[in-house]
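> example.struct
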């Protein structure tokens, strides 16, 4: 699958202040990531700055934790590359940039030969419930919360017995928690991350009408909800759930 991704890489040095507007982290040495749809079909343009010459991994993984693409960059202050997803299965993916100092993740959807970025909810409260209207007309409610003892909570209401999946994976690693719902009206689960490696984690909730991706950060036993990203469309994941896959 990795060989099916057509990658056009252009390494360059550039002024970060002139090109990028929104930093990933605050501080005097911050990783700056910019990801956009490309003018080319099936493609994304990725630009990263302030790497401090650290060994950095760029990857694409699906919500099952399968790594579909991986590239390492070393001894660079910045780089730019174009990713072409042609040949990959339709569905939701996470594009990530990771080194020992910083990690950045962005959920994307790929369907009908088009790539779209999930809507980023940086301006909302991390634990605010997400509501959307299902095809049956009911309002589905999903809430992801920071619980005690290094745990994250997932609550879902008014599912109307429609299928859904909840998964947790570490950036660049396989899924470590997976729950598939088939005929439930509601769901509640606490997932404990105690003892797991310091890293960013991806918690995903997939339904027929929407997919939610919650970014979690674990550091020295402290779990933080960073942001969640949403795509409100049936997409390939929703169609597969509807068929019972």
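> example.seq
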């Amino acid at each position: 699958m990795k060989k099916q991704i057509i990658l056009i890489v252009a390494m360059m040095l550039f002024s970060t202040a002139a090109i990028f507007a929104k930093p990933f982290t605050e501080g005097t040495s911050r990783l700056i990531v910019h990801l956009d749809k490309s003018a080319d079909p099936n493609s994304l343009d990725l630009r990263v700055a302030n790497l401090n010459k650290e060994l950095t991994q760029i990857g694409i993984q699906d919500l099952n934790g399968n790594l579909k693409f991986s590239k390492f960059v070393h001894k660079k202050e910045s780089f730019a590359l174009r990713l072409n997803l042609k040949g990959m299965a339709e569905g939701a993916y996470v594009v990530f940039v990771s080194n020992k100092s910083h990690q950045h993740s962005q959920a994307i959807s790929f369907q009908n030969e088009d790539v779209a970025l999930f809507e980023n909810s940086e301006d909302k409260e991390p634990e605010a419930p997400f509501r959307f209207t299902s095809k049956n007309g009911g309002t589905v409610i999903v809430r992801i919360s920071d619980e005690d003892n290094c745990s994250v909570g997932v609550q879902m209401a008014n599912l109307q017995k429609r299928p859904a999946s909840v998964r947790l994976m570490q950036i660049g690693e396989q899924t470590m928690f997976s729950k598939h719902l088939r005929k439930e009206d509601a769901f509640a689960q606490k997932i404990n991350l105690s003892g797991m490696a310091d890293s960013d984690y991806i918690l995903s909730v997939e339904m027929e009408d929407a997919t939610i991706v919650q970014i979690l950060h674990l550091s020295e036993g402290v779990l933080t909800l960073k942001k969640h990203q949403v795509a409100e469309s049936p997409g390939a994941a929703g169609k597969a759930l509807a068929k019972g896959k």
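> remarks
Confidence is low (pLDDT under 50) at residues 1-28, 241-245.
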